[in-house]
Amino acid sequence: MIVETKEQRKVLLKVHELSKHFEITKGFIKRKTQILKAVDQVSLTVYEGETLGIVGESGCGKSTLGNMIMHLIEPSSGKILFEDTDLSEMSRETLRKKRKDIQMIFQDPFSSLNPRLKIFDIIAEPLRTHGIAKGDKLEEEVHKLLEAVGLSADFAERFPHQFSGGQRQRVGIGRALSLKPKLIVCDEPVSALDVSIQSQILNLLSVLQKRYKLTYIFIAHGLPAVAYISDRIAVMYLGKIMEISKKEDLLNRPLHPYTEGLLASVPVSDPELRGKEKKALEGETPNPLNPPSGCRFHTRCSYVQDRCRVEEPQLRQIGLDRSVSCHYPLGEIEASLYG
Ligand SMILES: Nc1ncnc2c1ncn2[C@@H]1O[C@H](COP(=O)(O)OP(=O)(O)OP(=O)(O)O)[C@@H](O)[C@H]1O
């Protein structure tokens, strides 16, 4: 496993120039095929034990990225290295074993649990499939997992429809934990829940992270949940990463105008995110089938200059542990001095 000597952080997952292109065919008589670049040359690193938040408006490619990391969909190009190993080059058997280490928690706790199965079988299924436990041992494991996610062992005999959204999400978390994964991709795990329940689930995820030494990729379209749970945050826009920074830096001194816009859209009642005056996001997200030339954010950017309309900025490092994809980042000099 790679060890970064400067900060002694172990790299768990590395995504290198990862892309997913979908072919979209339109029209009945004159059929026309276009390419939608849902994820476009994304590179990022996830360190052991951290939570990397991925945030951006609906349709920016967050779930597609998460699904590729989970091997639920095939990338069009690029690499995903888990513990230094390229999963796409593994034999089936090794891949099956490795895949246990990466699990997912889904957005919708109503549709992600099989309604015909009892909670016991929902949580037991991965343990049975991988031949990890059976009989009394299986029962003990399931009860332990229910307890870990804050549910009573009696719940094992009930069906999903007998539970609230928050309780179902707890079941989904228990199932994801059953194979003792190293990495959990949490895809909008609280978006479908009431605000009061959201913080309970976020707290549970934090407790479990410490208890089981988990690493999370936490995907959400809203900054508050991402800001609450993440150590670092990647901001996505139309398939690209616009900025990736430590949480505190990103919230206090955003470099990308899009990040500033996302911060400005957070209700001012959120004290942690309230800050200096920020330029709000204007206009709609462009059609991803026909993204703007140059910087893809330029059509909505309050600071746009001529160069931005023609030249696409590359993600480049500024200061310590911060990267931004913008020709004219906000507060660039300050950031390069203080990280
Ligand atoms: N199977 C598919 N076929 C065609 N286009 C797709 C497919 N899956 C996703 N897309 C498109 O890819 C883009 C990225 O979608 P994705 O679901 O990854 O975004 P997202 O940021 O997770 O959004 P949301 O929060 O709404 O789920 C969108 O324009 C979407 O319409």
Note down, in words, how this protein is organized:
- The chain has helices spanning 62-69, 92-99, 119-129, 135-148, 165-177, 195-212, 223-229, 247-252, 257-264, 306-310, 332-338; strands at residues 3-4, 9-26, 32-47, 51-55, 77-82, 85-86, 102-105, 183-187, 215-220, 232-237, 240-246, 316-317, 323-324.
- It is of the alpha/beta class and 339 residues long.
- The radius of gyration is 21 Å and the shape is globular.
- The chain has one domain: 3-Layer(aba) Sandwich (Rossmann fold), CATH 3.40.50.
- Strands 7-8-9-4-10-11-13-12 form an 8-stranded mixed beta sheet, with helices on both faces. Strands 1, 2, 3, 5 and 6 form a 5-stranded antiparallel beta sheet that branches.
- The protein has 11 helices and 13 strands.
Short description:
The protein has 339 residues and is an alpha/beta fold.
Work out the helicity level.
Answer: 25-40%
Q: What are the secondary-structure elements, in order, as H or E?
A: EEEEHEEHEHHHEHEHEEHHHEEH
Rounded to an integer in angstroms, the radius of gyration calculated over CA atoms is 21 Å
Q: Please identify, by name, the CATH architecture.
A: 3-Layer(aba) Sandwich
Q: How are the strands of the biggest sheet laid out side by side?
A: 7-8-9-4-10-11-13-12
The outline comes out as globular
Which strand-content bin applies to the residues? 15-25%
**Regarding CATH, which class?**
Alpha Beta
Under CATH, the topology can be stated as Rossmann fold
Largest sheet: 8 strands, mixed
Number of strands: 13
